[in-house]
Amino acid sequence: MTLVERHLEKVRLHLDEENQEQWAVLCGATEQALAQLVKRYPQCPPELQQLLSKVDGTYWKKYGGQMVNLLLLASDVGEDFGYYLLSCEQMQEEQRFGDSIDDIYGEWLGQADVIDVDSRIDTSVAMSERLCFAHCLNNGGTSRLYIDFHPATGGTCGQVVRFLHDPDSYIVLADSFEAYIAGVLESNYAFVSEY
């Protein structure tokens, strides 16, 4: 089994009965939807493409007549803090956020009580240049996950960045999406049926 397949199996095993019903209707993105995403983000990691080919999002995504909202990914914030996987379409909708971290915080940058940014993240890059692939359990307002293709010196192209609100921070969670999923596999999957 691949990393992605192992991850999905662990999620399935941790679902409660109510969420099993949602799980049963999930299906992967169409080839066209994946192609559009890769056209916009040519460096989209193969592991994320594989995940989307099996599950095209779990963030208030309609499959047939059923609305799905399943937590599919983990965070460093806490064992029970999870994320919804965005669909290919939702990931592309995130492009509307064109401001950079510099634009958003301006004079507040450098004030650790307001905003803390990992030195491996280039604050001048527009957020739309990063692939936002997950919103947290409270609909993304508190935390989001990105794949960063334009790192600062010392960073790695494809690193996974976590935004967290109040106090705001942007940190590198993993050097790649593959490494991120490998880290999730080491967790206890407490986030799965939390909400």
TrEMBL record:
Residues 28-182 form the Knr4/Smi1-like domain. InterPro entries: Knr4/Smi1-like_dom, Knr4/Smi1-like_sf. This is Cell wall assembly regulator SMI1. It comes from Mangrovibacter plantisponsor. The lineage of its organism: Bacteria, Pseudomonadati, Pseudomonadota, Gammaproteobacteria, Enterobacterales.
